[in-house]
Specification:
By secondary structure, this protein is α+β, with helices and mostly antiparallel strands. Helices cover 17% and strands 23% of the residues. The chain contains four helices and 15 strands. The strands form five sheets. A four-stranded antiparallel beta sheet has the order 3-11-10-4. A three-stranded antiparallel beta sheet has the order 5-9-8. The longest helix is centred in the N-terminal third of the chain and has 18 residues. The protein is elongated and about 75 Å long. It starts with a strand and ends with a strand.
Length: 275
């Protein structure tokens, strides 16, 4: 990979030199942005992909004057490297694609880079604004392997930190000093102005991107792992379970007349009761 065809863009190493430096910027964005059950497998896939990318980015330190490249650092998001189908915005629709969802972390990196005053070498805005995303503030940066990249640099060394918790993705930059903001020349040119449709909930069955709901019918099932019988928890399971849930217990209390394992199994399919 080359920067403006004049110098090679290298993969930077993790280090501890700037771990105590001041936090000069941070960006926090929510992970679970969709509440529809049909969307959960795409959101969960996105979070898994983000977790893999975070491992490549957290603790990275970029020397003064050198360029950070998203794809040079993260690498290709392929199945062989553990990536799965996640949410990807393409041609005005939310579609499932291997590695989908990485734009959330490229957005956060761009957002933090702007607040840090870094020089933006390459940035591409999405062609459509998704409600609630950083694109609403023109703070997004789409990436697509291997020719749509996010690149930035600074005249002082800086450290990138990235973490996931149960709710949010957080990206922080650390440096000894904050540089002056650089001028930004790449602006958004909207192509799609309507709200994007999602393949998971769209009813256009003749589209070539249609998602077969049967492929993901097992997603989101709950496995109840139980031991000694508890009437309160037994009632909870019967109230909250759905047909694809499974019950795991040490032995069949009713069959062996053991009251301390007398879990209710009558309303659960036999092949979903595991001893």
């Amino acid at each position: 990979m080359f920067d403006r065809f004049t110098s090679r863009v290298v993969r930077h190493q993790k280090n501890m030199t700037l771990i105590s430096a001041e936090v000069i910027s941070s960006s926090r964005t929510p992970l679970w942005t969709e509440i529809e059950p049909e969307e959960r497998f795409l959101v969960a896939g996105k979070i898994h992909n983000l977790r893999l990318a975070v491992r490549r980015l957290d603790g990275l330190e970029v020397p003064a004057g050198q360029t950070f490249s998203f794809w040079r650092q993260v690498g290709r998001a392929s199945r062989l490297r553990g990536y799965v189908e996640g949410r990807e915005l393409r041609e005005g629709c939310i579609i499932p694609n291997v590695g989908g969802g990485l734009c959330q972390i490229s957005n956060a990196l761009y957002d933090a880079a702007l607040d840090s005053g870094l020089e933006i070498v390459e940035r591409h805005a999405h062609t459509q604004v998704v409600a609630g995303s950083l694109a609403e503030r023109d703070r997004d940066a789409t990436v697509f392997w291997n020719y749509v990249d996010l690149r930035f640099r600074s005249d002082t060394p800086f450290r990138i930190e990235a973490q996931l918790d149960e709710k949010d993705l957080t990206v922080r930059f650390r440096a000894e000093k904050k540089t002056l903001p650089m001028s930004q020349t790449i602006r958004r040119i909207p192509v799609h102005n309507d709200t994007p449709q999602s393949c998971a909930t769209c009813e256009m069955g003749d589209c070539h991107r249609v998602v077969d709901s049967g492929t993901h019918r097992e997603f989101g099932k709950t496995a109840f792992l139980v031991d000694e019988f508890s009437p309160e928890f037994d009632s909870y399971i019967q109230t909250n379970r759905i047909s694809k849930d499974e019950l795991f217990m040490p032995l069949d209390g009713k069959r062996f007349k053991r009251g301390n394992y007398a879990w209710t199994t009558d309303l659960i399919a036999r092949d979903r009761v595991c001893l």
